[in-house]
Amino acid sequence: MQTTLAEFLRGTPDGEEAKSIVGKCVHCGFCTATCPTYQLLGDELDGPRGRIYLMKQVLEGQPVTESTRLHLDRCLTCRNCESTCPSGVRYGRLVDIGRKVVDERLEAEGVRRPAGERFARWALREGMTRPALFGTAMRLGQRVRPLLPQALRNKVPRPVAAGAWPRNAHARKMVLLDGCVQPSMSPNINAATARVLDRLGVQLLVAREAGCCGAVRYHTGDHDGGLDNARRNIDAWWPLVEAGAEAIVMTASGCGVMVKEYGHLLRDDARYAERARRISALTRDLCELLPDFADNLQDMAGAARRAGNGQRVAYHPPCTLQHGQQLRGRVEALLTALGVDVRLCADSHLCCGSAGTYSVLQPALSYRLRDDKLANLQASKPDAIVSANIGCITHLQSGTDTPVQHWIELVDRLLE
Ligand code: SF4
Ligand code: SF4
Fold it and tell me: What pLDDT sits at residue 309?
């Protein structure tokens, strides 16, 4: 689609990037059929092709309305449409830019979001991205969990013990992104990762100055705040990288997809561009990392296979893994090698509705998607559901008594 950028966007990095993305769309509509919000709402403007058309109008300077913002808000940023698109349209980047432009234009015209919505967005940005504050609130919430209203209880998982963090020193070292909400919501995920890598001869380091990957701020329109988070993390990790750390390890695919974009997002920052590119290149989701240890895993696999034998799990691949990072099939292969009967459910390409802050900002659509996903996941009567992102895990667990956990926790138990 040919786009003539409005004066205020001409020559800007965001404007030119958005124009080139829209230019690749041939309007075929293949993506529409696989879009979860189009499937739920049946409105062309709640599908990727319609949203691209809306954003093209915005880029060209046509009037922006609250309806434009609503259709963009309802997008999960699941990027399923990117996996389907035959033309390579980078929809995720486009919608990040489009949302920011729409918000700025409406603000400039005095059309503010309702007060409740503004507060929710502020609370998410300021609360989720501060691990100490979030951890205190989570511990308090867990103490009074039975008394909480259902909507809040859904966000407060039952407390779990993290288990021991290994103390062994190894010559091979990697850096872990601790994350902002995961350590208090599910502390065992990072500890299990450290134990598994320890068994494989790798010491996992955590830079305490690092924090949120920046996705929460960036995807709620605060691009500057998100990039500041990225710069802080790069500063925290860089000395460890210079000292020989082999990889930046991601245990949440939502963070991984963001950190892998640091290089692109900071490409015009003279001070950070090179380091950001290097950090992104070193970033690995756990499912990319463990196959590198196939030989070691094979040595341990005998006992693990006996332990795993007979266990049936349903695997939910997060959108940020299967669409955002285009990583498919690896978790299933790994668990199968360890003797686990692992199943993908029907429509496994569809989002579970968690989608970062979406379950808070668009609860009605989010819970419809969760319930559909759980019905599919539970059809095989699994002993447990496994996934690869804390948001999906918490969201799914809020709707079922079947245990939902990170797949690395299962591997950790099998290798014990
Ligand atoms: S990102 Fe997901 S919800 Fe948004 S348009 Fe694409 S497929 Fe639909
Ligand atoms: S599949 Fe790709 S090219 Fe076709 S309408 Fe969707 S985004 Fe455009």
Answer: 67
Task: Decide whether any atom of ligand 2 lies within 6 Å of the 208 Cβ.
Answer: no
The span from the CA of 130 to the CA of 209, in Å, is 12
Question: How far is residue 287 from each of residues 93, 247, 411, measured CA to CA in Å?
Answer: 24, 13, 11
Q: Locate 112 and state its tokens.
A: 């503010």
Distance 190 CA to ligand 1 centre (A): 30
Q: Which atom of ligand 1 is nearest the CA belonging to 34?
A: 7
| Extents of the domains making up the chain | 13-108, 291-415
Please state the separation of Cα 203 from the chain's center in Å.
25
Q: Whose atoms come closest to the Cα of 45: which ligand?
A: 1
Is pLDDT at 301 greater than 70 in this prediction?
no
Q: How many CB atoms lie within 10 A of CB 224?
A: 9
Q: Residue 323 Cα, ligand 2 centroid: separation in angstroms?
A: 15
Hunting for tokens 């990225």 — which residue is that? 230
Residue 21, phi then psi, degrees to nearest 5: -70, -50
Which protein residue has the closest C-alpha to ligand 2 atom 4? 28
| Residue 346 in tokens | 């029907």
Sheet with 283-285, side-by-side order of all strands? 202-206, 172-176, 248-250, 283-285
Task: Kindly give the distance from the C-alpha atom of residue 28 to the centroid of ligand 2, in angstroms, as a whole number.
Answer: 5
User: Is the distance from the beta carbon of residue 168 to the nearest atom of ligand 2 less than 6 Å?
Assistant: no
What pLDDT is attached to residue 298? 62
Beta strands in 240-299 (DSSP E): 248-250, 283-285
In this structure, what token pair is assigned to residue 50?
Answer: 């319609």
- Global pTM value: 0.94
Fold of the domain built from segment(s) 13-108: Fumarate Reductase Iron-sulfur Protein; Chain B, domain 2 (1.10.1060)
H or E element, residue 342:
strand 341-344
* Atom in ligand 2 nearest the alpha carbon of residue 49: 5
Of 300, 294, 377, residue with least CA distance to 333:
294
| Tokens coding 45 | 């403007």
**Residue range 291-415 in CATH 3.40.50.1860:** yes
Residues above pLDDT 70, as percent of the chain: 97
- Cα 26 to ligand 2 centre (Å): 6
> How many whole angstroms from 330 Cα to the centroid of ligand 1?
24
Model confidence pLDDT, tens digit, residues 328-344: 999 999 999 888 999 99
Indicate the top mutation candidate among 21, 73, 81 to test ligand 1's pocket, ranked by most ligand atoms within 8 A of CB: 81
Tokens of 26: 């041939």
Closest by CA to 103, choosing from 265, 249, 221, 226, is 221
